[in-house]
């Protein structure tokens, strides 16, 4: 896990605010207080910053933020995941992002999406890599060491266990490339 400093964390939060429509003081205030998509990514940014600290106080804060994420948003996003800037959750409910998932910039993730390991103990538990400007629609699952290319679309309820090339659409169970 790459060390993220305070300056990078604040820069990412500002970028996320702009992505969520905060272009003035009052819009920033409304977004900060009432936008569930922004609150979810804010929780991740703060938790990721705190998880790097060794103090017991920060470890307690990480547990608190993880608890808030599950109870308030019904989401579980690992603070060890690497999430890029301007990620957008149009309906931030029941989203699961595993430990070592890598997500690029400008990705949209709808409700019910799972990004994680395939869970097979006899194989290395590897995680997906989602590149830039990808859209993951409701209920889709991306499992294992899968690479989803730039500008790709993962259809609703698709189960992806194969690589998806750039600018492609993956649909179905198991997913096929259109």
TrEMBL record:
<dbReference type="InterPro" id="IPR011004">
    <property type="entry name" value="Trimer_LpxA-like_sf"/>
</dbReference>
<dbReference type="InterPro" id="IPR005881">
    <property type="entry name" value="Ser_O-AcTrfase"/>
</dbReference>
<protein>
    <recommendedName>
        <fullName>Serine acetyltransferase</fullName>
        <ecNumber>2.3.1.30</ecNumber>
    </recommendedName>
</protein>
<dbReference type="InterPro" id="IPR045304">
    <property type="entry name" value="LbH_SAT"/>
</dbReference>
<keyword id="KW-0808">Transferase</keyword>
<keyword id="KW-0012">Acyltransferase</keyword>
<comment type="similarity">
    <text>Belongs to the transferase hexapeptide repeat family.</text>
</comment>
């Amino acid at each position: 896990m790459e060390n993220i400093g305070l300056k990078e964390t604040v820069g990412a939060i500002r970028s996320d605010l702009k992505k969520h429509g905060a272009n003035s003081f009052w819009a920033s205030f409304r977004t900060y207080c009432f936008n569930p998509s922004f609150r979810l990514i804010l929780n991740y940014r703060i938790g990721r910053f705190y998880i790097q600290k060794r103090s017991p106080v920060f470890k307690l804060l990480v547990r608190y933020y993880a608890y808030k994420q599950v109870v308030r948003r019904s989401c579980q996003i690992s603070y060890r995941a690497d999430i890029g800037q301007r990620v957008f959750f149009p309906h931030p409910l029941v989203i699961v992002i595993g430990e070592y998932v890598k997500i690029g910039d400008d990705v949209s993730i709808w409700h019910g999406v799972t990004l994680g390991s395939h869970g097979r103990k006899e194989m290395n538990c590897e995680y997906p890599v989602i590149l830039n400007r990808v859209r993951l629609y409701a209920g889709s699952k991306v499992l294992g060491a899968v690479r989803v290319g730039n500008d790709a679309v993962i259809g609703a309820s698709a189960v992806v266990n194969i690589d998806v090339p750039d600018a492609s659409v993956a649909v179905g169970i198991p997913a096929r490339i259109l």
